[in-house]
């Protein structure tokens, strides 16, 4: 009798663990896509401010990457819009959105690094969020699509 219950219990336990894993993956993907949408909007807004009022950001001296604030504004506006659109694609369940999201989050982190002399704290926050998004899309995206 106990031998018959053991396989049924094992199958039930496996289904429960698989459901939890899929639920966690779905939660991480949803969170990552919302973070992408918000970070893209914030990054686009940061770029818009740099374009409209380029004296708003004050650069530190002796930084290796020296660009015009307006140029960085355009870069951030375009990258922010692309990250926002990739976040919408991931949220809508598009598998290609995960790949685009990983690439855009990587590019966004590199672009944010170049903005470091203008707004260091915000840059660190954006880079940390981009790293989390890359992790969530790479690790948990596979689980959700399986």
From TrEMBL:
<feature type="domain" description="DUF7144">
    <location>
        <begin position="29"/>
        <end position="142"/>
    </location>
</feature>
<dbReference type="Pfam" id="PF23636">
    <property type="entry name" value="DUF7144"/>
</dbReference>
<feature type="transmembrane region" description="Helical">
    <location>
        <begin position="28"/>
        <end position="51"/>
    </location>
</feature>
<keyword id="KW-0472">Membrane</keyword>
<keyword id="KW-0812">Transmembrane</keyword>
<feature type="transmembrane region" description="Helical">
    <location>
        <begin position="98"/>
        <end position="115"/>
    </location>
</feature>
<feature type="transmembrane region" description="Helical">
    <location>
        <begin position="121"/>
        <end position="139"/>
    </location>
</feature>
<dbReference type="InterPro" id="IPR055568">
    <property type="entry name" value="DUF7144"/>
</dbReference>
<keyword id="KW-1133">Transmembrane helix</keyword>
<protein>
    <recommendedName>
        <fullName>DUF7144 domain-containing protein</fullName>
    </recommendedName>
</protein>
<feature type="transmembrane region" description="Helical">
    <location>
        <begin position="71"/>
        <end position="91"/>
    </location>
</feature>
